[in-house]
Design brief:
Blueprint lengths: L1 H18 L9 E2 L2 H15 L6 H10 L19 E2 L7 H15 L6 H12 L15 H10 L3 E2 L2 H4 L1 E2 L6 H4 L5 H5 L3 H13 L4 E4 H4 L11 E6 L6 E10 L2 E8 L4 E4 L4 H6 L4 E9 L1
Parallel strand pairs: 1-2
Antiparallel strand pairs: 3-10, 4-5, 5-10, 6-7, 6-10, 7-8, 8-9
């Protein structure tokens, strides 16, 4: 019931934004010929033998992007929120989204570029519907909840994690850090309403001190957000879990190293070595 009420409220917010002229036409999709060729090559390779485990396929596809350049804010293209497809340059979130979309497309009845576009849009936007800047799932906790409702992922930490109690509000609190919110201040109170709804949800995470003892419950292909002490944020980084020498590591687009890499140290040690990390939110591909 709460989910239905939330959906109705958000739909009314979007309608109000459209009426106010804040959300222009959103029909366009942006990509290059290189992006479509890369997608076709990956889909051709993995659709022939997609396997039974969706997470394992996500991890396999993720490894294909090793050394791909890290580029931030590739989705920030204005309030109209065109669907950006960029497999040549990735940030931590677009890396995870593209891998999941490619896996879903490869396992579909009609694998191909059009299916990939559909899957990516479904993953990236609330209820799978692109309707301006506010329809994008900006917070990872919101991304997990929405994609779980769509049946694309599950939330395994609900079975072995701890309650995740965090108040998101960074975007509405720092609108000057986001070009669209800075240019369209009427969107800021609408974002604040979204943040309030996100903060009221019940979710679970795995505390960083519990990651090592729960590695047997983690799987290759799990998509994780690294939770943080930064006020107003839920996570500050996203990646895909992979196994290396029997341990769980993070496959991710690293801003520090400037490319997609597998962490040198196991995830539990990576978390322990940075004070601002508190644990992980987990999304398991179905």
């Amino acid at each position: 019931m709460q989910s239905l009420i939330t959906s109705v409220l958000l739909a009314s917010l979007f309608s109000a934004a459209v009426a106010a002229g804040c959300l222009p036409d959103t029909a366009s999709v942006v990509y290059t010929k290189t992006d479509s060729l890369l997608e076709e090559q990956l889909i051709s390779r993995f659709s022939k033998n997609p396997g039974k485990d969706g997470g394992a396929l996500v991890a396999q596809i993720g490894r294909e992007f090793l050394n791909t350049p890290y580029v931030a804010q590739t989705l920030e293209n204005g309030v109209q929120e065109r669907l950006i497809i960029n497999l040549r340059e990735l940030d931590c979130t677009t890396f995870a989204e593209n891998c999941l979309a490619l896996a879903l497309a490869a396992r579909s009845e009609k694998p191909g570029f059009e299916q990939f576009i559909n899957e990516l849009e479904k993953i990236r936007y609330r209820q799978g519907k692109r309707n301006g800047y506010l329809s994008r799932l900006h917070y990872f906790s919101d991304w997990i909840s929405d994609n779980a409702e769509k049946g694309l992922i599950s939330e395994p930490a609900s079975g072995f994690g701890s309650p995740f109690n965090v108040h998101v509000g960074f975007m509405s609190g720092h609108p000057d850090s986001y070009p669209v919110l800075k240019d369209y201040p009427d969107l800021v109170p609408l974002m604040a309403v979204q943040e309030k709804l996100i903060s009221e949800r019940e979710q679970f995470f795995l505390k960083k001190e519990d990651v090592r003892s729960n590695e047997d419950k983690l799987r290759e292909g799990d998509i994780v957000g690294l939770t943080t002490t930064v006020a107003g944020l839920d996570v500050t980084h996203v990646g895909i879990l992979v196994k290396k020498n029997g341990r769980i590591h993070l496959l991710h687009a690293s801003s520090t190293l400037g490319k997609v890499v597998i962490s040198e140290e196991p995830l539990s040690e990576m978390l322990a070595n940075k004070k601002s990390y508190t644990g992980i939110l987990i999304a398991r591909p179905k």
